[in-house]
Amino acid sequence: MYIDQDLVLRPLRKKEIALLPPGARPGDHRTRFYLQEGGIALYLIAWLGTTAVGQLLLTWEGETREPMGSQLVRCPHLSDFNVLPEYRSQGIGTRMLDHIEQLAQEKGYQQIGLGVGLDNSRARALYERRGYRDSGLGEYMDSWAWIDEQGQEFLVIDRCLYLVKHLAE
């Protein structure tokens, strides 16, 4: 499979919302699209043909939760980063991060940040290989809800660490 040649990265288009796999909650993709339309965020989608294989939300104003909100000034925040399981370890996540980091740097940002669950060693290893480092702000708790295909809601609570990558000297 030649994913590198066939992969297309672009901001979500309104007509593509229905092509995306279900989000964690109904309306997630639409909400992220409208954040993008308002200039608040960029919702990057990785496409192989008509299949959305990855997603990443970049919020330009950064993380609002404390202590990140007050300590990290002009630090866009990456979240909702996912590559479909059957497409992982094929360079898609790396390409998405390359793309989003370049866009942030072109807009004059010198750093970019994200939270990673302490138990998500695979993701943390990827971020650290790419130059993301512990922000020094300590651990924090993140919680989010998701709804399965049967409509049952689940609450996830993660202990996280906030990582920052310096984009420019």
Mean pLDDT: 89
Q: Could you spell the SSE succession in H and E letters? A: HEHEEHEHEHEE
- Name the assembly state: single chain
Q: How many separate domains?
A: 1
Shape: globular
Number of strands: 7
Share of helix, binned: 10-25%
Largest sheet: 7 strands, mixed
CATH architecture: 3-Layer(aba) Sandwich
The helix count comes to 5
Strand percentage lies at 35-45%
Low-confidence spans: pLDDT under 50, at least 5 residues? none
Radius of gyration: 16 Å
Q: What is the CATH topology?
A: Aminopeptidase
**CATH superfamily assignment?**
Gcn5-related N-acetyltransferase (GNAT)
Q: Kindly provide the name of the CATH class.
A: Alpha Beta
- State the end-to-end distance: 37 Å
Q: What structural class is derived from the secondary structure elements?
A: alpha+beta
Strands in their spatial order, largest beta sheet: 1-2-3-4-5-7-6
What are the salient characteristics of this protein?
alpha+beta, Aminopeptidase, 169 residues, 7-stranded mixed β-sheet, 25% helix
Write the layout of secondary structure elements.
Blueprint: H1 3-6, E1 7-11, H2 28-37, E2 41-48, E3 51-59, H3 68-71, E4 77-83, H4 92-106, E5 111-117, H5 121-129, E6 133-147, E7 153-166
Protein name: N-acetyltransferase domain-containing protein
Keywords: Acyltransferase, Membrane, Transferase, Transmembrane, Transmembrane helix
Organism: Reticulibacter mediterranei
